[in-house]
Every structure is written in C-alpha cells, then in structure tokens.
Amino acid sequence: MAYKILYYSWNENTCKDCVDSMRSLGHNVDVITYAIKNYNIDDGFTDFLTEYLTKGYDLIFTFNYFPLISNIAQEAGIPYVFWVYDSPHYTLESHTLSNSCNRGFLFDRTLVERYRSMGIATVSYLPLGCNIDRLEKLTSSIIKNKTYKSDVSFIGSLYQGKQDIYTQINYLPDYLKGYIDAILWTQMNIYGMDFADAIFSKDMCQTMAEYVKVGLGEGYNDNRDDLLKDMIRKHITGIERARLLDAVGQHHSLDLYSNQKPDSIRVNFKGIAENYKEMPLIFASSKINLNITLRTIQTGIPLRIIEIIGAGGFCLTNYQSELQEYFEYGKDIIWFESQEDLVDKCNYYLFHDTGRENIAARSHEKARQFFDYKVLLPKVLII
User: Fold this and answer.
1) pLDDT above 50 for 211
2) How far apart are CA 350 and CA 288, in angstroms?
3) What's the rounded Cα separation, in Å, for the pair 289 and 273?
4) Are strands 80-84 and 102-106 parallel, antiparallel or unpaired?
5) pTM of the entire structure?
6) The domain 4-126 belongs to what CATH superfamily?
7) DSSP SS3 for 192
8) pLDDT at 208 over 70
C-alpha cells in the first residue's frame, strides 16, 4: 500500500537515501525542515507542523525520536513512525514514548527489551539500513579511482577532549575513581558483555551521583544511573579506539578520518570524511575497514558496519551479539576479540586478497538481503 508521508528532516545523513527508497517503493513523500528550538515545547514548530497536517498525510516519519512531534501527532490522530540510529538517544526517555500514535524502531535489542520491561509497547526491533542501489552505482567504477586507496581505514570519533565528559571530572574520591578504572580496564578486551551495567551497581551510582549531577528534567524518566554508565561507556570507547588504532598503526598504514587529530596515535590523519559520496568510496577502496563500536550500543549492529558492507567493503569489527543473527563468522563477517587478535587479523587479511574479497562480496549480499531500505521500509511503514 502506498502512503502519503510527511518526512521531517533535521539534516540527518540518512535523509536522501531513505526518501529516495520510499519513493521508489511508490510512496508520496513530502520533506520538511525546521530548526526546532526545544524538543518538548516549541509553539512555532507546533503551528508549522499542524498546518502541514491539514494536507492529509497518512503518517509522519523521522529518524530519531522527537517528543514534540509525538504530542502533535497524538493530538492530530495520525501515526508517528520513527527509526532511531543514534546511541545513546535520550529523548526516548520522554514520558511521551508511550503515546498510542508512536510506531518506533530501535536497532539494539537490549534497548527494546528494556522499554518493553517498563510496559512500553510502542517500540520494536529493526536493524538499520542503507540504499544498496545508490551505493553500487557510486562504487561501480572505484577501480579507476585511486584517491581513497588504503590498507586500513577507520572513520569515527575518538571521543577525546570535550567529547569525553568523564575526563573533565577531577573531583571524584580515589576509591570511586579506582573502582571505575577497574571496570574500564576489565571491559577493554571483552566484547558481548557490558561491565558498566553488570558491575556498576545502583549503590555505586548513588555514590557517584553525590559528585556528578545528571538528569533529563521534567517529563522524562529518572535515568540517572544510565546517564552515569553511558558517560563511562563513552570514556571506555575513546581509550579503546586510541589503543586499537595505535596498535594497528604500528604495523600497517592506517588512514584515520575523524574530527579530532590525535597527538600520539600512529595514523595518517585525513580529517572529516563527507558522508554521502566520500565515505562509500573510502569503504570500497580500503582493503580493511575497521569498526570499533561505541560501547553504549550493547548488542545491536551499528550503522557503520551496514554502511561498509553496503558499499562492498571488507569490515573487520569488534564482536556484537546480534551479528550472529545475520552473519556467519569466517564466511561473511570477521570480528576480533582482543587487541592482539585485531593486529593478527589485519596481518592476515591484508595479504590474503582472495579470502578478503570473497568475504566482502558475501557480506555485501547480506546487506542486500537484510539491510537494504527496500527490504526494511515495508516493515517500518505499517500503520
């Protein structure tokens, strides 16, 4: 069934691919933009969206969740469909999440289970997607383009400086900081289990809250403990990425595309990669594309993996439990389990072209089978 869709865009990277795919499936899509001042109350945006809804749309769609849009949709009696790709995404903690108009999709099963355990039935599981047709057209002539040739590449943040809130807290007592550091170093080489959640107890969160004041405010769940744990998870990710990249860079040429130039990591710093055209060419041109998942993503498959294999690249990633739902290890996905294992796998696959290219080809077919927007959107657009 074809729908008339009102798509609110906040200039997210996924907009054009998703809209093109919606239209290719026969849907009528109008895209609107507006700089929302407050995700909870914005009279100007409320008037703007309410006026648009008089044109008779079947649903409103957004990437990520906007409580204000949910309330407007609830009042108008129209379904609000949202697909979350950010992690963490704290607007999900809004009390509006239970609005009956909501049809939400999250890519991390652990998060879905958490909200379901709270009695919220408006969110379901769905992996993230990409536009396979566009990526194949873009990368089809990549052999002729040597601009982005690389042995090993990594695209992503290092979460250093102002992006790492934990390092800016210099007033924790020694025993608490020692406890957190123990969690950090224990977690560093273990994937598939979240030590911040398993070890950082409610009592310890209460102790930390005496020194670090966090909260989302009125109209949101009291998720103080999760905010504190996420702060630690991001800190772990920053240290982990720096250590792993440096370890690989000691042995091989590694191109880093990031908004932060590292001081002491042995990489070729390339600056920020443009998302729509440049990143797919990097993925297709690199012999090995590294994915090091942000630790706030507990079990889900991050968008980066889907973008890499969608562009036909070879992906070497840390282990995430949901990978096994779609991929067979050694056949169409390779993951590493420690720093030493990462270096060993880089050593191997850089010099075994046929095996690497076969895995990349099979993972690309998995992307077409499971993660293409044309496959996923019919599951999203059910009202």
Assistant:
1) yes
2) 7
3) 14
4) parallel
5) 0.94
6) Glycogen Phosphorylase B; (3.40.50.2000)
7) coil
8) yes
Domain boundaries, the chain: 4-126, 133-371
For 138-183, what is each residue's pLDDT tens digit?
998 765 456 788 999 999 999 877 777 777 777 788 888 888 888 7
* CATH code of domain 133-371: 3.40.50.2000
- 299 within 8 A of 108, measured Cβ to Cβ: yes
**In degrees rounded to 5, what are phi and psi of residue 315?**
-110, 125
CA 203 to chain centre: 30
Q: Which residues contact 301 (CB under 8 A, 6 or more apart)?
A: 107, 127, 128, 320, 322, 323, 326
The whole-number pLDDT of residue 143 equals 57
Query: In this structure, what are the phi and psi dihedrals at residue 238, rounded to the nearest 5 degrees?
Result: -60, -45
**Closest of 131, 116, 153 to residue 13, by C-alpha:** 131
Tell me: the pLDDT tens digits for 216-265?
Answer: 889 999 888 888 888 888 988 998 999 999 999 999 999 999 998 888 89
Handedness of CA 123, 126, 128, 131 (dihedral sign): negative
